[in-house]
Specification:
elongated, Alpha-Beta Plaits, 3 helices, alpha+beta
Length: 91
């Protein structure tokens, strides 16, 4: 019984091993002032699973690193759009 419980606990704790940090670049063309990146960055950082967001005004880009088991690209795009800055995945 103890071995079964131990095996179950080990298998549950190994789920985190399958998580992968992904990094994507979003184009945010509606950023038109130097303070816009602050709002975009905060909107991205509020998404569960986002580990890092770097938003720059001049190239109008957001580089986002996130845990793909907690969020996805659509959630990131929705977050920026809801903040007033629609974005698209840069290809």
């Amino acid at each position: 019984m103890k071995k079964l419980l131990l095996t179950a606990l080990l298998s549950l704790s190994s789920f985190g091993a399958f998580a992968e940090v992904k990094t994507v670049t979003l184009e945010v063309p509606t950023m038109n002032c130097a303070t816009c990146p602050i709002t975009v960055k905060k909107s991205l950082e509020n998404v569960d699973g986002v580990e890092k967001a770097k938003v720059t005004y001049k190239p109008k880009l957001a580089i986002v690193s996130f845990d793909d088991t907690k969020t996805n690209i659509n959630a990131l795009i929705t977050a920026t759009t809801n903040a007033g800055y629609p974005s698209t995945l840069k290809k």
